[in-house]
Design goal:
Largest sheet: none
Number of domains: 2
Structural class: mainly alpha
Helix content: 55-70%
Number of strands: 0
Oligomer: single chain
Length: 472
């Protein structure tokens, strides 16, 4: 079920009404969330509900077993069972065909002909997100950072919580699971902030991302016949498409959670105002970046040890992050590029330099800050070309043509640039807070009215478009 669909428009108020006005007991509310979450996910393909249930049963059982033993060997075995199951599940559905195809291609280089036996494996929506979520539970229980739960309904609701089930944020059990044990009462301020986030998230998705998608698809689909300027615009459109799409989803997820009395972690913090690549990755897809930091980077040694080990760990984390996004060499190449961009900061010990809000006490950035943000955006957008392209060869060809394509096109795609500039300004004046704060009541409601009208206009004008991260 899509957040930007008619079905969800009917689904959300129905669940909300039952949750607050009919089913007021905590355990019954949790059961309702579980049922609603399975309906929400099963709306796409009910057969894959079995995977979520299986993943839930495995990690719940492992958590219970970890609590019953202090034998370190048995505890390690249980942890490895969780790792093997979750990563095996992810590996089969997401990477089986990728490995088979590359194995056959590798042997063909030596003149050996092999017949491909790839299965038509369908990638379950959100599998990368909920497997990481359940996996973090087992790891935290193993590390004794979290007491394992005996409430199966609460745990199953945590795993399948519908607002963030298919595209995050990837919640830690230490944050979200305890919220299922606590008695919840309706909080108007929390719900109001949630509605603002939902509204802003829909604007990002429907007005910004979906329109940018049309222009980006047009340019990338026929890049050989586009001018250099148009190719640059295509990369910029995709940069705003993926940001509006993914951060929009996160806003809607966080906002929807607040309607039910839950608080999810922030997943985006105005990443395109970053002054270096390190800051960008502290502000982009925060739940995934911190997941890899805590469960992979730090166990590898993190920033401790000599420079060689630090560089090794950085490349591992970025390459794995790229591979997490999909079974394609383009994602791995994208991850490697970001590691290269990060490297100078690591070598000069400047990767933790920009941790505050840019131009915090000013309306406008300094020239230095502006140039830093522009440079970072150019590097990020350059890497996005590999993320968007179907193959590494296509991405390299696209970039090459930016520098020498002189053909002039009469495309009207530039007409959307004004809306992007307006969006950047709105984000800039919101950068110190979660959403734009307007003190004047008349101006505030006028702003909301314009946002709603824009959403309705583009909802009618354009077809419903899936969220990009559903494929991951």
């Amino acid at each position: 079920m899509l957040f930007n669909s008619l079905e969800f428009l009917l689904f959300l108020p129905t669940v909300f009404t039952l949750y607050w006005f009919v089913l007021k007991k905590l355990k019954v509310q949790n059961l309702l969330i579980l049922v609603a979450s399975y309906i929400f996910y099963g709306w796409w393909d009910w057969r894959f509900l079995s995977l979520i249930l299986l993943s839930t049963l495995v990690d719940y059982s492992i958590g219970v077993r970890l609590d019953k033993t202090n034998n370190q060997q048995k505890r390690k075995l249980l942890l490895w069972l969780s790792l093997a199951f979750n990563l095996g599940l992810l590996g089969f559905f997401k990477y089986f065909n990728f490995f088979i195809d590359n194995w056959v291609d590798a042997w063909s280089n030596f003149g050996v002909t092999m017949h491909k036996s790839s299965l038509q494996v369908i990638l379950p929506v959100g599998i990368s997100f909920y497997t990481f979520q359940t996996l973090s539970y087992s790891i935290d229980v193993y590390r004794k950072k979290l007491k394992p739960t005996k409430d199966f309904i609460a745990f199953a609701s945590f795993v399948s919580f519908f607002p963030q089930l298919v595209a995050g944020p990837i919640e830690r059990a230490t944050n979200l699971l305890p919220q299922f044990y606590q008695k919840r009462s309706f909080n108007y301020d929390l719900a109001a902030s949630g509605m603002k986030l939902i509204l802003w998230g829909l604007f990002k998705k429907i007005v910004i991302a979906d329109n940018c998608a049309m222009y980006a698809n047009e340019i990338f689909g026929d890049y050989q016949h586009q001018s250099s300027l148009t190719l640059i615009l295509g990369a910029i459109y995709f940069a705003f498409q993926i940001y509006g799409d993914f951060s929009g989803y996160s806003d809607i997820a966080i906002g929807t959670s607040r309607l039910f009395g839950f608080n999810l972690m922030r997943n985006f913090n105005y990443p395109y105002f970053s002054r270096d690549i390190a800051e960008f990755w502290r502000r982009w897809h925060i739940s995934l970046s911190t997941w890899f930091r805590d469960y992979l980077y730090i166990p590898l040694g993190g920033s401790k040890g000599n420079k060689f080990k630090q560089i090794r760990n950085v490349f591992i984390i970025f390459l794995v992050s790229g591979f997490w996004h999909g079974a394609n060499w383009t994602f791995i190449f994208w991850g490697g590029l970001n590691a290269l961009f990060f490297l100078p900061l690591l070598l000069t010990n400047k990767n933790r330099k920009n941790t505050g809000i840019v131009a915090q006490e000013k309306y406008l950035p300094s020239i230095k800050e502006f140039l830093q943000m522009l440079t970072t955006f150019i590097l990020v957008t350059f890497a996005w070309i590999f993320f968007r392209a179907e193959t590494v060869t296509t991405a390299i060809d696209y970039i090459t043509r930016i520098f020498y394509n002189t053909v002039q096109t009469n495309s009207s795609i530039e007409k959307f640039n004004f809306i992007i500039l307006l969006f950047i300004l709105l984000e800039w004046f919101s950068r110190k807070t979660e959403t734009l704060k307007i003190k004047n009541k008349v101006l505030r409601y006028t702003f909301y009215f314009i946002i709603v009208q824009s959403i309705l206009f583009y909802t009618v004008s354009n077809k419903v478009v899936d969220f990009i991260y559903f494929q991951f």
